[in-house]
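Page 42, continued from yesterday. The earlier attempt failed because a stray header line got pasted into the input along with the sequence. Redoing it now with the clean sequence only.
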Amino acid sequence: MTTLSLRPGEQLASAVCATRVVVVRTPGAEPVNLTCGGSPMVAAATAEPKDDAGQAVTLIGKRYVDAAEQVELLCTRSGSGELALDGVALTLKAAKALPASD
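This time it went through. Structure tokens are written below.
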């Protein structure tokens, strides 16, 4: 199991599909096991470009969070892999309701 110490603003890429994300929020310096499509995420600068022929699972412009909303990722390129933190799939972050303008 490969662990990463995430930092806000860090860009990560999937090793198995075209998914790319930017870290928005992290619980601190503690290492986490972040995967996409079952393989560990890698630094975007060192990743080889991938083409995806499959159906997009991660969607560009969407934010993905863990159950406690301590880790938040912004998808910058869609891909066919599912994002997971410590083996648990990340979910789409729900949009905040805007206040009513009466």
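Notes: Residues 27 and 70 are 5 Å apart (CA to CA).
Reminder to self: strip header lines before submitting.
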